[in-house]
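I wish you would study the pair of lines that follows with an eye to the fold:

===
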Amino acid sequence: MKAKKIINDPRNVVTELLEGLVWAYHGRIRKLEGVNALVKTELPPGKVGLLIGGGSGHEPLFHGFIGENMADGAACGNIFAAPTPDVILAATRALDQGKGVLYLYGNYAGDNMNFDIAAEMAAEEGIATRTVRIWDDVASAPPERVDERRGIAGDLFVIKVAGAAAATLDSLDEVYRVTAKARDRVRSMGVAVSAGSLPETGEPTFTLGPDEIEIGMGLHGEAGVSREKLLPADALVDKMMQRILADLPFRRGDEVCLLINDLGATTMMELLIVNRRVRQILEQEGIGVYDTIIGSFCTSQEMAGFSISLMQLDDELKHYYDMPARSFGYTRA
């Protein structure tokens, strides 16, 4: 059965959702003329720019994370599709204040190719860029091939730290260093119990049986590590946490930030039950939780399921994480 969507022309969903987001920001961001890119209306002179981006359809990721001590702009692709180089370049020009622009996005082939092309075009115009690709999904490749992993909900932690670093450090290389450090300390894993759909067609992005779950499912419906019968919440979380904790690895005495992310159609009741078991496991392992975030931050339309993300902290990362942040999709007092 096709999904029901409250939209106008399916071909205009990205432009119209961005226009709605601009209104929601009350003048703090603007849409660039002729392209699907958003930037802050005011940027301090000499600031290192932070440009995030990727396919639309994962709201509030990415375009909902522009704001105070967060990103300065977002290059937006069509639903589940990478932004094109011209969109990325337009946003880069708008953000460059003479110190260069950091590109930060999920590690997907289309995004990698198009951001790299835009970086070459920016260099020809004398704009310096550096790139951090987020690859937190432990289910998508083994540790020895970490640079092949997908970026999923751990994006939020990396964007939070990068935004604070870009607001306070005056060197593109230093912002890159802090952001890469945050990226390298984040691990995530997701599970899906039902599919999201494409607004253009209403068709689901994958199919599952009525009693099946996909463990390690990617944001766009990419295959996970296993397809199994539906498990009780505790047994499912146990499987996921075993894989996450072993991957960095996280160790007794570590302090982490924890994100329980709704993939689009999971209730708060379910997320809190998941959080209960995650915290029991972390307590047993002697790992402290510095902060907990629960909600919808990296979604896939109406996909039902959730992901768990951990960021291993040190004093430097804690400093940037603690800086106040304000955006449509995430705020930290």
